[in-house]
Amino acid sequence: MIDSHCHLADEAFAKDLDEVVARAQQAGLERVMVILEGDNSGEAAQAERLAALWPETRFAIGVHPHQAHQFSDDPQRAVTVVRQQFDATPLARAIGEIGLDYHYDFSPRDVQQAVFRGQIRLARELDRPVIIHTREADEDTLAILRQEGGGELQGVLHCFTGTDSLAAAGVDLGFYLSLAGIITFPRATDLRETVRRVPIDRLLTETDSPFLAPVPHRGKRNEPAYVARVVEALADLHGLTRGDMAARTAANFHTLFRP
């Protein structure tokens, strides 16, 4: 199994990182993809600790739309920051998470879009996939991916909770859809029906930990070991064994991120 999106460099794991990693390994995880916020020295330091503790860890680096406002004076500076950190991180494999968030609007929308575009161009230059965050901004997110992707961009719509049309658009772009603990929530009936129609070769599994713990851990701090519940839910939807689904989604991860 692979957790394709988690935040183990977050301070929520600072005190017991060793134990969290041990539980992930005991649960059968091959590796994790840890998301790092560009220009965050605290996360960068914890990433070094994590890389030493679990060398199979891989990293993605990007400026999240919530932080885009920090670069409002010069959106290109966000690209410079991410490029420098990516080059200095040997285990980095992707640009992300990046995208648009119109729910909270912590950053002006024009700034979000400029920072997003710049990082897509960087990903194309580096020939690396992108990890996409989109919330209440699907139309603009897809438009920018089409405009800037040039038919060459690969990536994943992370923590997918969208509609049939968004799923279809993502697959048409050649993207993967990554499912988190929300897929196990009792009220996520529509999401499960959408995911049932997504080709298995376009699915990834994630926790987005420390957020969105799956049932029966809902309400607690999430962690990579709990990705097993996501694998189980997807296996049930597609009529596979847990082992088969774990193997298929792990293969998808390797195809996308070339770890």
Q: What's a concise summary of this model?
A:
Helix content is 43%, strand content 17%. It is of the alpha/beta class and 259 residues long.
User: Which stretches of 5+ consecutive residues score pLDDT under 50?
Assistant: none
Task: Assign the CATH topology.
Answer: TIM Barrel
Which architecture per CATH?
A: Alpha-Beta Barrel
Number of E strands: 8
Our count of helices gives 9
Q: Largest sheet, order of strands side by side? A: 1-2-3-4-5-6-7-8
Number of domains: 1
Beginning-to-end CA distance, first to last residue? 14 Å
CATH superfamily: Metal-dependent hydrolases
SSE succession: EHEHEHEHEHEHEHEHH
Strand content: 15-25%
Q: Output the radius of gyration.
A: 17 Å
Largest sheet: 8 strands, parallel
Mean pLDDT: 97
Give the class from helix and strand content and strand pairing.
alpha/beta
Tell me, briefly, the overall form. globular
Task: Note down, in words, how this protein is organized.
The protein is an alpha/beta fold and 259 residues long. The protein has one domain (2-257): TIM Barrel (Alpha-Beta Barrel). Helices cover 43% and strands 17% of the residues. The protein has an eight-stranded parallel beta sheet. The mean pLDDT is 97.
